[in-house]
Every structure is written in structure tokens, then in C-alpha cells.
Amino acid sequence: MKFPGKRKSKHYFPVSARDPLLRDSMLQEMQPESEGGASYIVGIDQTMVDIEARVDEHFVARYGLTPGESNILDDEMSEALYQELMLNALITHQFAGGTVGNTLHNYSVLADDRSVLLGVMCNNVKIGDYAYRYLCNTSSRVDLNFLQGVDGAIGRCFTLISETGERTFAISPGKMNGLKAESVPEDVIAGASALLLTSYLLRSKPGEPIPQATMQAIEYAKKYHVPVVLTLGTQYVIADDPQAWRDFLRDHVSILAMNEDEGFALTGLKDPLMAADKALEWVDLVLCTAGPNGLFMASYTEEEFKRTTQHPLLPGAIAEFNQYEFSRAMRRECCEQPLKIFSHIAPYMGGPEKIMNTNGAGDGALSALLHDIAANGFHRTSVPNSSKHSREYLTYSSLAQVCKYANRVSYQVLNQHSPRLTRGLPEREDSLEESYWER
Ligand SMILES: Nc1ncnc2c1ncn2[C@@H]1O[C@H](COP(=O)(O)OP(=O)(O)OP(=O)(O)O)[C@@H](O)[C@H]1O
Ligand SMILES: Nc1nc2c(ncn2[C@@H]2O[C@H](CO)[C@@H](O)[C@H]2O)c(=O)[nH]1
């Protein structure tokens, strides 16, 4: 486990700790962990490759697609669309994709540690085909041993970028929704620091098993008190039935990741701070990205242990909302006197000079949050007596610190073409507190 934001291990296991017993256990525990991994994230996804193409303004309308949406195609339409892209040589890039697959890959790159992907994979993989590319473009730290074999293709996600830069997904599903409930391993969920899901998993055709597999995973997560993390797909997926999603969040989810449009579809509130605040009625921790306006986080902490920020207080619909952003996030049910906490950060260094691709910037932010959550699990197992764990926190770091890290990772994704990080953050950033942040 590398530590979030490239912090040195001393930030996690302070060498000046006074208790010699604790220090001995620290020394033992800091030995390289076994391959099994003391702390990991598990996720379910529809296995798919992204096929990115530049298209003219009429293309999306001609295929009857909703711009900005993730549209599902039937086989006939998929073939016609693919043939047109090929004929006109419009395909510019092909990557492994899927919102959860991207997030787990990025988590594993950042943490240099294990994550587990549940989903389907072709029984018969041929060199050069899409399944092969998917496997080749996934970090070797993502454990693919629990994938379920299927006879047929994985999904294809045509990522159509219009002349105005708008991004529309057109999904050719193949067998991506074929994951069965019996392929969800109870012990893998039981040992995880978090279970990552996306709202896309629940919108398959009648008879496809992936929604049941998702509900099975949620049941296991609840049984073992593993936080369930849900990333919302697109605003349209949510807008179809916002009340059903609110109920789903209330009943099953601890941590919610969304962008401001999805936040609006869910809550009816345009202001991302207010949308995040509203979502705290249903979940314990919210990450709401807001494109060029940076990102917001909201959660709960124990009133008695709240920590006041040293940053300037920010104006907003909730006055001075970031006042306690130096506090660590907790589940509401674990607080005796829950206090809401909020944080905001503007894009890292104002955003890159040239944005290569915004696809996956939100997934990148979430992978940073998951890294902090897993680091908390790692530290809890390594130094269980630490005062850090005298209460059951969700994150290792304060909300403000997680915001910085998430934002930094989004910047990295904006700076490259693929939604999947090709490498971790630069080595010279050995602390989030060092001057690199002040530039
Ligand atoms: N135009 C921009 N300028 C500067 N920073 C940006 C810009 N767009 C995005 N970002 C950074 O990326 C983060 C995530 O962006 P955004 O809200 O667009 O994610 P998203 O819509 O969830 O993306 P995706 O669904 O593709 O993963 C923002 O919080 C911000 O830090
Ligand atoms: N799992 C899943 N991912 C999707 C879907 N539509 C788009 N994406 C992914 O969303 C990512 C960007 O967040 C892209 O890399 C796409 O692969 C979908 O229906 N299901």
C-alpha cells in the first residue's frame, strides 16, 4: 500500500510514536504485505472497451442517440454504427473502459496495491480481440481471477466526441450483463475495504442476471459491514426515476460519487454543495465533482471531535460551509452527535493548460477517495490500537485532504488521453503539504 497523495509512511506510522509496544507492532506490520493484500477494494462492472471516435454534429442524431447519455444499442444498430466508423476511419483511440473498471485500475495504480474486479470475460480470448485488449490494458494489480467466463463478446462502448466536444456513449452490450449472483464470492466481499458499484449495473434487459449479482454483493457487504460505494452513471439514468434512486441510496449505499448534473437529476438542486447536502439524507459521504468548478465533499463527523479548518472560510448557500473540513468522515450511525462537514477545492493549479480528454476525470477523483478509504483499512489492521481508530472513521484523512488528493488525480486524468492512469503521481510529490501544492 502506497499512501494517498504519495505521503511518506511516517505520516501514517509516525516514527515519534511514544508507545514502544505500538512501535514494535508498527515495525512488524510495515514489512511488505503478502500478495493476498491486507486491504483492497472490490467492484462489479460491465466489462467493456471504449472505442473513441470523432463524429460530425449529425452523427448522434442520425442514430437516434440522446447526446450526453450512455445509450444502449441493439445488435443491428451496433454493427451499422461500427461499420460507419470504420469506413470513414473515425476511430481515434481504443482503451479498456467501464466506469468501475477504470476506477479500480486507477486505484491499483495509485495505491500500487490489489483491487478485485467482478464481471464477465470471454472464455475464448484471441490475441488482438477486444477481450484481449481489455486484459492488456488493465493494471496487473487488478485481480481478475474472480471474473466469470461467458461464451460471447464483452461490451463495446462507442465514445462519440462531437465537434463541440460533447461526449455521447453508445453501448453494444455483448454479454457484459451476464454476471450471475453465484459468481459473487462472499469471502472477497467480506474482506474488502469497500464495494464499488455503478448505477449502470441496474439497467440491463429483463432476464439478464447482473442486477441480481449486484444485489447479492450488497447483501454480503451489509453482512460484513463493508461500505457500499455507488457512482452514478449519467444524469439520464438517474432522471428516469430519481425517487427509486433515492430509495436505493437510503437502503443500500454509504458513499455516493456523482457530478453536478447527476446531483441535479437526483436531488433537483443545481448547486453541487446543496445537492451534496441533500444526499446526506440518504448516505454518509458524498463526492460531487463540478467540472471547471472543482469538487465538493460532504459527510458526517462526531461533534465532539470536529476539527476547525485552517483554510479561509468559504461563502456558499451554506455559510462558511468548510468550517470543519479538517475532520475525518464517519458514518452517521456511528456518531453519537452527528455533525455535517463539507469541503470544496478548485481545480488543481487551475486545471491543465490543454485538456486532453475529460472522460474519466470523475472516476479518477473517486479512485483517490477509495485509496484513502483502503489506507484507513490498512492502518486499522496494522496498528489497531492507534488513537486514529478509537472511533470508526470511513476515511484516513480529513475531508479537506481527500479533496486535494481527488482533485490532483482528476488533473492527471485530464492531462492524458485515456480515462485510465498510465502511471501513478510523480514521485517528487512526497507530501500533499509540501510546496508543490502551493504553486
Ligand atoms: N474544464 C475543466 N477545467 C479544470 N478542471 C476540470 C475541468 N473539467 C474537469 N476538471 C477536474 O476534473 C474533476 C472531475 O470532472 P467532472 O466533474 O467533469 O467529472 P465527471 O463528469 O464525473 O467525469 P467522468 O464521468 O468522465 O468521469 C473536477 O472536479 C475538476 O477537478
Ligand atoms: N459500466 C459501464 N460503464 C459505462 C457505461 N457507459 C459508459 N461507461 C464508461 O464510463 C466511463 C467514463 O466515466 C467510460 O470509460 C465508459 O467506458 C455503461 O453503460 N456501463
UniProtKB/TrEMBL annotation:
Family: Belongs to the carbohydrate kinase PfkB family.
Gene3D superfamilies the record matches: 3.40.1190.20
Keywords: ATP-binding, Kinase, Magnesium, Nucleotide-binding, Purine salvage, Transferase
Pfam families, per the entry: PfkB
EC class of the enzyme, as a word: transferase
Keyword Transmembrane part of the UniProt annotation: no
Span of domain Carbohydrate kinase PfkB: 82-306
Pathway connected to this protein: Purine metabolism; IMP biosynthesis via salvage pathway; IMP from inosine: step 1/1; Purine metabolism; GMP biosynthesis via salvage pathway
MF (Gene Ontology): kinase activity
Catalysed transformations (reactions): inosine + ATP = IMP + ADP + H(+); guanosine + ATP = GMP + ADP + H(+)
E.C. no: 2.7.1.73
Protein name (database record): Guanosine-inosine kinase
InterPro entries membership: Carb_kinase_PfkB-like, IngK, PfkB_dom, Ribokinase-like
Binding site for ATP: T289, A290, G291, P292, N293, G294, G362, N407
Function text: Catalyzes the phosphorylation of guanosine and inosine to GMP and IMP, respectively.
